[in-house]
Amino acid sequence: MGALGGAGETMRGMQLSQLISGARPRTLALGVAPVWIGAAGAWALMRGRAHTLPQCAWAAGGAHCASSPARMTTLMLLCLGVAVFLQIAANFANDYSDGIRGTDAHRAAAAVANRVEYVTRATGPGVVEREETLDYEELHAPTRLVASGVPPRAVLTAALVNAALACACGLAAVVITGYWWLLAVGALCVLAGWFYVGGAHPYGYRGWGEVAAFVFFGPVATLGTTVTMAGAVDWPAVCASVVIGLVALAVLSVNNLRDIRTDTQAGKRTWAVRLGARATTVCIIVVIALVMLAVLAAGVYVGVHGSTLAHLTAGWGFCAVLGMVCVLLTGYFTCFEVARGEYMRAMWSLSLLALWLALAFTGFVMVL
């Protein structure tokens, strides 16, 4: 209780609105979607065991038993807790590290310069009455907590609290399944979240952030969920983990494309800085197109084999079609948003695309 009380006292340096903003709620779909996909794959695997294998004990699992719905649901929620709390912890940790490193100071200064430039362009020289009405969001960047005056210790405490919650969820899942090796995976995820922009040599400053986003929001989160719940993986889950990883890669690339000028000033060598704005824009559009093609190919496969699929029902078929159509439409419009430089809107659209992708995969895998 004393430790929690101390954390609460420290976090009082932040207002509730700042705490919510620092969690980056608009991006949390990227943590939810891979768990959703992994859980759908696990349910599909478990469906085939329900009538042929004995039921798993609560404190043991694996590929040679069938879990009860209650056990599956519990593990799914624990995996969701791990993903979401770790993502929030990473967001606060990044804000803390960039803030004390001075990277966000460049962004804050650029925001002020952009605001003055925008007002001058819109109302004419010398007219500044509208300056204070412009929201930071209109400048296509989220609020940076440390650079905005929030005590760094409060931001770090928020990161540590969320990391502790993620570890608690992960430990509970390990105890239930008996997969103690998952502790190593969890530790790797925590370290990856911290050293993205933290530590003496952050890998996010050397162009490895996009790779990490693909790996940890793709195969690690998706297949980790499937293994935790079902004790095994299959090829649909592997393919889906790659596709959702591409979505995460696209989101971080759009974020870095938005920050390309200030990242260059701060010495942060992201892919956007290395490739340039034009090439990065093209690469993002290509990645989104690959996601759309993958979903379309999966839809064609399910459609061709639909008459022979034993589990095809109107409900799952509707989920598959709705998810596929929404992925294609969202991806199409997102490409134009990226090309027009509407980066905040594009990241929001990609977050929605991740959820539509999860819905489509759920429909696909449940009829296979």
From TrEMBL:
The chain crosses the membrane at residues 27-45, 75-93, 154-173, 179-199, 211-229, 235-254, 275-302, 314-335, 347-367. GO terms for biological process: menaquinone biosynthetic process; vitamin K biosynthetic process. GO terms for cellular component: plasma membrane. It is found in: Cell membrane; Membrane. Pfam families: UbiA (PF01040). One of its GO terms (molecular function) is 1,4-dihydroxy-2-naphthoate polyprenyltransferase activity. It is an enzyme of class 2 (transferase). It is a multi-pass membrane protein. Its main location: membrane. Pathway: Quinol/quinone metabolism; menaquinone biosynthesis; menaquinol from 1,4-dihydroxy-2-naphthoate: step 1/2. The keyword Transmembrane helix applies. Keywords: Cell membrane, Membrane, Menaquinone biosynthesis, Transferase, Transmembrane, Transmembrane helix. Conversion of 1,4-dihydroxy-2-naphthoate (DHNA) to demethylmenaquinone (DMK). Belongs to the MenA family. Type 1 subfamily. This is 1,4-dihydroxy-2-naphthoate octaprenyltransferase. It comes from Bifidobacterium pseudolongum subsp. globosum. The lineage of its organism: Bacteria, Bacillati, Actinomycetota, Actinomycetes, Bifidobacteriales. The gene is menA.
